[in-house]
Amino acid sequence: MDVLSDVLAAVRLTGAIFFDSTFHSEWVAEAPRASIIAHQVMPNAEYVFYFHTLLEGSCWAELTDGSIEPIRLQTGDVIAFPMDDAHVLCSTIGMRARPELAIFVHPIDRQLPYLINQGMGEESCRFVCGYLGCDIRPYNPFINALPRVLLGRGAASQVWLSHLVNHAVSETDCHDAGGEIVLAKLAELLFIEIVRQHIAALPMDSRGWLSGLRHPQVGLALRLIHGRPSEDWTIERLAREVGLSRSVFADRFAHFAGVSPIQYLARWRMQLAARRLETPGISVAQAGAEVGYEFEAAFNRAFKKIVGSPPGSWRRKRTPGTEPGQLPFSYGAHIPSEAEPLGSTRPDN
What we know:
single chain, alpha+beta, Jelly Rolls, 2 domains, six-stranded mixed sheet
């Protein structure tokens, strides 16, 4: 089981490339917090964040609040801002501009990306900008594990990333039929590649879910949980499978995942069940059974405790009856933590 792939599929990571921009001489482009324009650019996504790929030239990237040192970007680099931070791309450190909110709209009369060409100077910088969207509820362990700024270097040694950037260039230039979906998939691949770079560069003693993926025992436990989520796992059984004592395993898992193994299992089951509840013809009892709940009443209690509403109510809010662009939650940079989950699927608990 590839845990990262499993999670990204379950939370429905989706990409879109909106802008192919070329700026000359002194220039600045400021982006507002993604939550401000999310309903316009990706109305069906719960959580949206920016990414930018530098195709030609070099520039600076900064957070508008100045809390992180400016980052120098070179041709082939990819940068993402997963924590809903307003930011700036500019030719000179410290430049600022008022974001033009009117341009953040998905066109109905033309094909993406928008082409932008500004300035007359000799020095130019070209980049494509887009968005990535995903679900954050009921449970997305991935998003909270990301840094505020995620940077992938497209140096010659990063052959795969360089190929993706070159493909993005050709697609934005040709505007062929099907180009938007190709660019969307390229956006996802670019992002996943820089996440993989980030994981590979993490210090061995770092905390967090992403670090846990490559830890020998915690990574194995995550693969077991994701590979067989309906199984009646206990801490003792998982500890035995990974070759640790119960106490050492529980401490180590919580160190990386931020929750106990049983809490993680229960929350992940609700994520899978929530997706199944959106499938036509799947009953509440069936969704619960598929994630290990033999009794519907036990599943109902667990779902309500973790998610905050009964499975039937959740489904009514999430099915196509919701108006396009209307989100059944409050969007924001802070991703709420779930209630303490039930640790048992038995009906008498």
